[in-house]
């Protein structure tokens, strides 16, 4: 029983990191119908900036409590990621907004490669160990363990999601975002500036991704220029799984994906008598995705949209 | 340009293509290899162009079919299977060396079958959902190839399959150099001619397809699926056909790749590879054959050529920029700037008969 509980905890932690990244994908998709391939790299930049800041922490501030240190570093990383994503949108996506749909997809892929390469040049390609700032003694709940870092991840994710929901549902910006997602042209006629809304969307997405990056780094303890790729891919899968363009869908999809992965990896060996091992864990996500999409072509919570004529 | 001049142009182009490897091999076989690889990518891009360009279905897992073809050849023409299965070893005492005429149809057929299998459940999906499903399919195939070394060793896992036979073609072993009188034709040049022939055949097939009833049906589906259905096009079968055809091209190129390299491992079939093939098609001009070929040649040769000029730059930057990093950097920049400058591709198809891109906002 405790194994199951342990896998559920791990799955939720993994899923909440996916959720933060998936929200960025789904918000961007909802507004400009673009798969932002560079989003995983934004998360990587967030993680690496925070690592760099921790490495170059000024001696004068050596006495800062570790929790506060992590918070300050995370805030700066969010700012950097937001600025970066803002520029990416301005340079690579905005000029192509009325071009054939595949064009921005290719620039997004180009951006993703470019960011990885630049990160490799700036920070060197080796794996770097990320300092653990939170105490490492785990708590025990009914036979399963959870580390303070994991608790922090769950709490921070919940807070971020709450804030995002508030922004989207109860602020002027949120209303403008929803209107633009519905129909950019009409939103424009109603006095919404689509360009500004789109920039805001990219900034919010980047902040969430940077938070995810810092948490991912402190959970796994290493950072590297290619670290954004796999979580980015999984988060994108999660967004599609839940119904791309739908915020709640992205969160549900991400949490389910995290649970499926960790429970699947824990039990597949026993279920198949050792034929399939946990090295297949990376494809559970895709197998489930294909299965779900065959039954519900618009994802779990996606609306049934008719093909646009 | 009148028709005579056109004929002369074609003749010159053909001659240039035919003599290219003989010229290049004077500078070393590495240059001919670059040309060979470029031709393989042209083949792959032509296949993907059927799916993405004609039928408008975004496929981000195309490399899976390439992998299926390559593994088909790798398994049927190397000691891998006879080493792990004793009954097979007893059946083929001289080792398993299946002839090309068995493997090409088998590879093409299996890849095509997988294409249809992938297409069947995903037909109802809209564009981007389809993209992620195909991407997932590509990853699934790769992970299986990575892990099918246990409990029974089929693919030899991450170590890959080596000692793959070279191609034999009407009694000519393409793995050895051929002597024509005093003139030596290197093995890589022989492969070049084979690939060139395949590319020419594929271009003809694609061109005929484009002009055929099937091609028009695909384009109708691409432009507006509902209208296409209303016009009596069987969209389900047509989409499946596109998937199957594209996959078949991928499978054949895979067989060629396996034979050409003599070694295959899951490393060669990553998502990045699929993405690069999509980039070739889109960068060149999606749905337009000359554009697709141009895109494939550019994106596959550019990094190789850059490798040679990267050396001095590396020294100048004190070793911080090594050749592979520089290559990646330039590819990324090229992808972004070309798309920004020419959103419809370097050599897009002429507008007539095709609708303008629908503009949002």
Produce a short descriptive summary.
The complex is a heterodimer of chains A (309) and B (361). Chain A is mostly helical and 309 residues long.
Account of the 3D structure:
The complex is a heterodimer of chains A (309) and B (361). Chain A has helices at residues 2-32, 39-55, 66-93, 102-123, 148-170, 172-182, 184-189, 194-220, 229-242, 247-271, 281-295, and strands at residues 128-129, 139-141, 144-146, 222-223. Chain A is mainly α and 309 residues long. In chain A, the strands form two sheets. In chain A, strands 1-4 form a two-stranded antiparallel sheet. The longest helix of chain A is centred in the first third of the chain and has 31 residues, at 2-32. Chain A starts with a helix and ends in a 14-residue tail after the last helix. The relative contact order of chain A is 0.20. Chain B has helices at 3-24, 29-54, 63-76, 80-84, 86-91, 100-122, 127-147, 187-211, 213-223, 225-230, 235-261, 271-284, 289-316, 323-341, and strands at residues 168-169, 172-173, 178-180, 183-185. In chain B, the strands form two sheets. A two-stranded antiparallel sheet of chain B has the order 1-2. A two-stranded antiparallel ribbon of chain B has the order 3-4. In chain B, a hairpin with a 2-residue loop joins strand 3 (178-180) and strand 4 (183-185). Chain B is globular, with a radius of gyration of 21 Å. Chain B has 361 residues and is mainly α.
Helix/sheet category of chain A = mainly alpha
The topology string of helices and strands of chain A comes to HHHHEEEHHHHEHHH
Strand content of chain B: under 5%
What is the overall shape of chain B? Answer: globular
| Count, helices of chain B | 14
Largest sheet of chain B, in brief, is: 2 strands, antiparallel
Distance between the termini of chain A: 52 Å
What is the structural class of chain B? mainly alpha
Number of distinct beta strands of chain A: 4
Q: Could you tell me how far the N terminus lies from the C terminus of chain B, measured between alpha carbons in angstroms?
A: 42 Å
Report the radius of gyration of chain A as a whole number of Å: 20 Å
Biggest interface, chains and residues, is: A-B, 59 and 55 residues
- From the spread of the alpha carbons, the general shape of chain A counts as globular
Quaternary structure state of the chains depicted: heterodimer
Computed over alpha carbons, the radius of gyration of chain B is: 21 Å
Outline the biggest β-sheet of chain A: 2 strands, antiparallel
Biggest sheet strand order of chain A reads: 1-4
On the 0 to 100 scale, the average pLDDT of chain B is: 85
Number of helices of chain A: 11
Low-pLDDT segments of chain B: none
